[in-house]
Design a protein that fits this description.
It is a single chain. The chain is an alpha/beta fold. It has three domains: about 160 residues, Golgi alpha-mannosidase II (Immunoglobulin-like, Sandwich), CATH 2.60.40; about 350 residues, TIM Barrel (Alpha-Beta Barrel), CATH 3.20.20; about 130 residues, Sandwich (Jelly Rolls). The protein is built from ten helices and 36 strands. The strands form nine sheets. The protein has an eight-stranded parallel beta barrel, surrounded by six helices. A hairpin with a 4-residue loop joins strand 16 and strand 17. Helix 2 runs parallel beside helix 3 and helix 8 packs across helix 9. The longest helix is centred in the middle third of the chain and has 18 residues. The two termini are about 15 Å apart. The N terminus is likely disordered.
Length: about 700
């Protein structure tokens, strides 16, 4: 992090939201402030859509932070706006595997799903991950999930005594793909991916995995054949069906032991990290070139965890790295998630979060909103850690209702909407209908309003923002997972101009009698932001137009000669206090309960911006931590209190006035062994 000048053009048309809750105290060289920073806003008049006119608002109608009790403060700055893919978000999506295979026989269900998930009146997703199936040995009958037996494109021809292409074998999934592409329109992005090679190319003869799930399942003699298979199907989809393919992912969660022969589903194939993965990557790239598919990139490796994806990136051969166009990661295990996000910035590769879902719940007595709140927090935490250019869930439909089942197997039936469940909706085959849940509407609070081409902005645990630089629109999504309403101050003081009105859309309650993308009354902005009520157990989206981002530049104060001391790390290990000034977000101080660290700068040093990064995947352990300043190392003045879970990666606190201290101290939260003294990095800046 060398003496960097963050004027690094951090796309200074952009913005970051950083959680800066009440209670933080600035005791720096001047009056005590709230640590939020100041800058001119737009005032109480703003341009309307009619050229040359301004709306006149009665100032008495505007709610300001001084006139109400503020529970939560969200401050926006440009410094943590995503730079991945040049700062341009590519969109939201879902894999079509396996649900499209299950519903694609029905034109009614297929079109309904395309409209609900990809249409303008639905979620407005734009990314579809099409699964090139491996089929399975016709003598096998172990795949009992009704949706998971994905047909292979190669079938045995008795007459020819060989495998031949059957272009209708996967007609169900293709039926949904075509309709989804049409519904998404110009923003459609198609990735084809493989869970398993065709069963006859595997060592086990089974597309569910190897008999030893720790061992590669693709035959050594079949690497070229499998690469040709992927390229052939991709070519057919693009050049015969007329569906443009953006990328091919030849592996799914490859370096795991999850995929064993004769399981109830077709989901993976083991490839060792290093030579095995590199080989299939380079051969697939060569096969695509043979078909003149120059527009199609290779993505890899869709690993199940972020730490494993880091490991695999470093294991690729130089030839493999040269042909990879994007790194895909899943986020079921988010260990080292911020480190992967930093790796993408350091290595300058495009990064997708390409698969996740789960059956978690959040909120307090949230009922049907429990699954929606959990899913919303998952979206936010992934984007905080990774700053990816796309976020894609596993499968939109995970459960099916059918009295007859499918292929001799029974469906799972309806989900418990008051509990946790996979998927967003349930397909009712008996009624040819799709049943929507509050989890579906919760996802729509993000996907309908944060659009491709926007720039994502990392925030705290319960908020996310995005900026549309072309049209000057700012979008903020805020979650309140508590049982009480909260009043939030959305601070936009670092903008050159803000709009006067804020559109409000909210989801809360249940599917019967609750809110689903309910359009509420506009909020009137004050000079430097707006005050909003976050309803209990709700997800709310705020849209402000006529926004212009100002330039914020920082000069870093070098800490390379600073002396760092601290309390004993956990287990007397290597995660010591000095790690907070080593320039790496991957290392951290792992202090136990009551832990602390102290930085001696050598001389009294002026700064007006405090930077800090939480330990990756343990951001909540900083909630309640306090930063102090001192000039004698004995008498300490509070600078800033972390009163909410901060974003992953580097957070910036703009202080009201300049601090001048020789010593900086951080003390971990008190009162709970769960909130230990964990912090990855501390930095100091001056506004340029």
């Amino acid at each position: 992090m060398k003496n960097l000048r963050l004027r690094k053009t951090i796309s200074l048309f952009l913005c970051l939201i950083m959680l800066a809750l009440p209670g933080m105290i600035s005791s720096c060289a001047g009056d005590g402030g709230d640590g939020t920073g100041t800058s001119a806003g737009s005032g109480t008049t703003a341009e309307t859509d009619a050229p040359g006119t301004e709306e006149i608002i009665d100032p008495s109608l505007i709610v300001t932070p001084d006139s109400v009790n503020i529970d939560t403060k969200i401050t926006i700055s440009p410094l943590n706006a995503s730079t991945n893919n040049d700062g341009l978000f590519q969109g939201w999506g879902t894999s079509l595997c396996w649900w499209a295979n299950r519903i694609g026989y029905s034109d009614t269900l297929s079109q309904l799903a395309a409209d609900l998930f990809y249409g303008d009146d639905g979620l407005r997703l734009n990314i579809m991950r099409y699964n090139i199936g491996g089929g399975d040995d016709p003598t096998h009958h172990h795949i009992t999930r009704t949706d998971s037996a994905i047909p292979g494109w190669l079938v045995w021809d008795e007459t020819k005594g060989d495998y031949v292409y059957d272009y209708d074998a996967d007609k169900n999934q293709l039926n949904v793909l075509k309709r989804a592409v049409d519904a998404a329109g110009d923003n459609a992005l198609v990735e084809v991916f493989s869970n398993s090679p065709p069963y006859f190319m595997t060592n086990s003869g089974c597309s569910s995995g190897n008999t030893d799930a720790n061992v590669n399942n693709l035959k050594l003699s079949s690497y070229e054949e499998f690469a040709e298979y992927l390229a052939h199907v991709t070519n057919y989809i693009q050049n015969t069906l007329g569906i443009k393919v953006a990328s091919v992912a030849p592996m799914n969660e490859p370096n795991t032991n999850y995929w064993g022969a004769y399981s109830d589903k077709q989901e993976g194939c083991h490839f060792d990290a290093g030579s095995a993965q590199s080989k299939i990557i380079t051969l697939t790239a060569e096969a695509l070139r043979q078909y003149d598919l120059d527009n199609v990139i290779i993505s890899a490796s869709d690993e199940t965890s972020t730490w494993k994806q880091i490991e695999e990136y470093h294991s690729y051969s130089p030839d493999a790295k040269a042909v990879i166009g994007r790194i895909n990661t899943h986020s079921y295990d988010t260990s080292n998630i911020a480190e992967l996000g930093q790796l993408a910035r350091d290595e300058d590769f495009v990064l997708w979060m390409s698969e996740v879902d789960g059956s978690g719940t959040a909120g307090q007595n949230a009922g049907e909103m429990g699954s929606a709140l959990w899913f919303g927090e998952k979206i936010i935490s992934d984007i905080n850690g990774l700053s990816p250019s796309a976020w894609i869930m596993w499968q939109a439909i995970d459960n099916h209702i059918s009295k007859d089942g499918y292929n001799g197997n029974k469906d799972f039936g309806m989900v418990d909407v008051n509990g946790g469940f996979w998927g967003l909706a349930v397909a009712d085959h008996d009624k040819e209908d799709i049943i929507l849940t509050q989890k579906y509407y919760g996802m729509g609070q993000f996907t309908r309003y944060i659009r491709p081409g926007y720039t994502l902005i990392t925030c705290g645990s319960d908020s996310l923002a995005a900026y549309d630089r072309e049209n000057g629109t700012l979008v903020v999504v805020a979650i309140n997972p508590t049982s009480a309403d909260k009043t939030a101050d959305i601070d936009l003081s670092l903008f050159d101009k803000i709009g006067q009105r804020v559109k409000v859309v909210r989801t809360s309650g249940g599917t019967n009698g609750g809110e689903q993308w309910a359009e509420l009354d506009d909020i009137l902005a004050y000079d430097n932001g707006f005050v909003a009520t976050l309803k209990a157990n709700s997800i709310t989206t705020y849209i402000m137009e006529n926004v212009e981002m100002g330039e914020v530049t920082l000069d870093e104060i070098s800490l390379k000669d600073a002396t760092v001391t601290g309390s004993t790390p956990w287990n007397n290990g290597a995660d010591v206090a000095a790690n907070v000034v080593d320039g790496s977000l991957g290392s951290f101080f792992d202090g136990v309960e009551g832990g602390w660290l102290q930085i001696d700068l050598g001389d009294e040093t002026e700064f007006d911006v405090l930077g800090f990064a939480p330990r990756s995947a343990y951001e909540g352990r900083m909630a309640g931590g306090i930063f102090y300043g001192s000039n004698d190392g004995e008498n300490w003045t509070p600078i800033y209190t972390v009163e909410g879970t901060p974003a992953g990666g580097l957070n910036y606190v703009f202080l009201d006035s300049t601090c001048k201290y020789r010593f900086i101290r951080y003390s971990g939260p008190e009162g709970s062994a769960d909130f230990l003294c964990n912090i990855a990095e501390i930095m100091l800046f001056k506004k340029a």
